[in-house]
């Protein structure tokens, strides 16, 4: 008996070793599969290819070294063969606006305050790190300007709004396409007529909403499918069309598919990611917002965002209905805006337009103790990322008060004229003008490199992932495109300069996912974004996956960064179904001690387990 037992003991290490070898082989096969289908039906939590666990910080390495996450850029490093493909049900995933995550984590949110529509990013252990597949039958989007009025149904296979809003002309189910007649909840007969009516109410010349270039940036709250913003573009007016991922789930997705600027957001508890005094006009057409809640805090957020002399156009039953409840709301709302020093510019039929004062005189003349109060002196109205709203009035800086306005040039001169708020950042007009000139040269080079691959209508929706003063976007003024200018939440508040140039954008943290649907941008421009991420210790692999999520199939990426970053990204091209277009040395940069390179990439059109078509 003892002899047999000893024999069994001697065999156990061999058996265990064999089991371990088999397991390692299976793991190797799983992660090196040629098409990534092993993970196509599973939820992939955590980053399998990064030292970090995801969007959060890596923390210090075990040996306390500060080695770059990009390593040495050695081309002999092993290249990844595949990323897992997300399940089909995640084809429209927005990681930080995922209601399933809220339910799974049992977050205690106040639904009355719209907290469930605000950003709630997944913790590392719940982050899906896989490729978001396009829906079955996905097609290259219809080109602008045709796309304003018609899109492929296969790209956004949702028609509930066509039926729910059939009497309001939001959209029409037309077989393999979806048509947009230009209607809305309040403007069934077309946004163009409604816009002209607003201009007429304000006595603008020729009923043109741009007011001879003095009205350029608009915030459309509760925008629906963004027809209001889409029809403003022909008047050289650009709107940030804003709506939550609510019961009308795909409204912002439709807007972006149409080629109209839009952003997923909500007036809830936190400030919108835009700086103070960014918009000449705010608009709400039956947006179903309770403006009286919490001492008028939501209306005060609009007040923070409006420029001196800015307008709020409000089309809602409270402005004209005669039943008791509507009259009560109108009376209380009128009292609130009067205490905010707004005045009625015009009230006609079903629309009222208020105008904000040009200076602080009215605020200073209010009786002591008047509510809402002025914000405290220490409050920074341009600090917005994750900052709670406050029920207070944002007064103008002393210089703006004395000037009696924003001091901005009319559009299009506004695009290249140094704005007064440069002084807030201690930036000279000369620095601003040199930056504008430098980026014009850079963009001209980009387009010469892209020229063999693009036609005039190939690119419409562009994101500049590190916009600084917005000079990249300004250099595209002659092209029929729009740019979402992104500024880091922890850097200089240059986003206000971007808005003062007549452009739009958002504050963001690239350690997190952006508030947009998958497949919404034709071109991403990443100037030293990866190098900045390295300094913060966030996952570069996860940023690559996020860029892939928001980039349309056949879309382009322009990476401008140091050589080690370029070599790092090259390792992932096959895994991401990307292809290199070209890589060249960049001209010497005054901002960088290390020479930069330009790497242009194109995303292939692929289907899970199926074909890839770079064309």
From TrEMBL:
Positions of transmembrane segments: 12-31
EC number, as in UniProt: 2.1.1.-
InterPro entries according to UniProt: Put_SAM_MeTrfase, SAM-dependent_MTases_sf
Bilayer topology term: Single-pass type II membrane protein
Matches recorded under SUPFAM superfamilies: S-adenosyl-L-methionine-dependent methyltransferases (SSF53335)
GO BP term (any one): methylation
Major localization class: Golgi
UniProt keywords, alphabetically: Glycoprotein, Membrane, Methyltransferase, Signal-anchor, Transferase, Transmembrane, Transmembrane helix
A Pfam family annotated for this UniProt entry: Methyltransf_29
Domain of life according to the entry: Eukaryota
Any Gene Ontology CC annotation: Golgi membrane
GO MF annotation list: methyltransferase activity
Intracellular or extracellular location(s): Golgi apparatus membrane; Membrane
Recorded family membership: Belongs to the methyltransferase superfamily.
Protein name: Methyltransferase
Gene this protein is translated from: LOC102704764
